[in-house]
Design brief:
Radius of gyration: 16 Å
Largest sheet: 4 strands, antiparallel
Oligomer: single chain
Strand order of the largest sheet: 1-2-3-4
Number of helices: 7
Distance between the termini: 46 Å
Strand content: 15-25%
């Protein structure tokens, strides 16, 4: 399967092998990403975070996290977007791999994954996800510095501004993203106990 993936996406995979990490994992969203995902957001839904990586046999992977759903695009040219309601996610994992971080989620008995995600985008993404869904402890977390935090806030705020109607975007969005990044630095990557406590609190209400 890896050989077929290489034949299909050889140029980008060659760069990944040479660089030792995904050179595309820390990019701003492309306009085609915005065009693809904008219509999948519901009124009042807030964009929180995203990660870019690779999907085996499918090419580029984009996961967009909102306060309600996880939207997944698994190729460059197709228009299909998978919707996973956060309340339906039963498990999430984040593991350091050879070329970046691999994220996995399980919902309705099916697992989806993306590999080659950048450490700082994955860190804040996973912390935000853990506030809504059960997450296992992060394996081999990477420490983030001030430059990482600034880049994450810029990237995620840019996505929110471009994907949501202007009326929906206010200072609260940037403040929330900045707080998530700050927590990822000073409290570490999310632990399962944090996610579980959130789930229990939500159930109680």
């Amino acid at each position: 399967m890896a050989w077929l993936d290489f034949l299909k996406n050889g140029n980008e995979l060659s760069e990944l092998l040479i660089e030792g990490q995904n050179p595309y994992g820390a990019q701003l969203l492309k306009q085609s990403d915005v065009d693809q995902l904008r219509d999948h957001l519901q009124p009042g839904e807030r964009v929180l975070a995203y990660v870019l990586g690779r999907v085996v046999l499918a090419g580029r992977g984009l996961w967009l996290l909102t306060d309600q759903n996880l939207l997944i695009s698994e190729n460059d040219s197709g228009t299909l977007v998978h919707h996973l309601a956060l309340k339906d996610i039963t498990e999430a994992q984040c593991v350091k791999g050879k070329y970046g971080y691999t994220l996995r989620v399980t919902a309705a008995g099916q697992q989806r994954s993306v590999y080659g995600a950048s450490s700082h985008l994955a860190a804040v993404f996973y912390r935000a996800l853990g506030q809504k869904a059960p997450c296992t402890p992060v394996l081999k977390p990477t420490d983030l510095d001030a430059d990482d935090v600034a880049e994450v806030v810029h990237h995620f705020s840019d996505a929110a501004l471009r994907l949501q109607p202007v009326a929906m975007v206010n200072a609260d969005v940037r403040t929330l993203i900045a707080q998530l990044a700050h927590d990822a630095v000073h409290q570490g990557w999310l632990q399962s106990s944090e996610a579980q406590s959130v789930r229990v609190a939500e159930t109680a209400h």
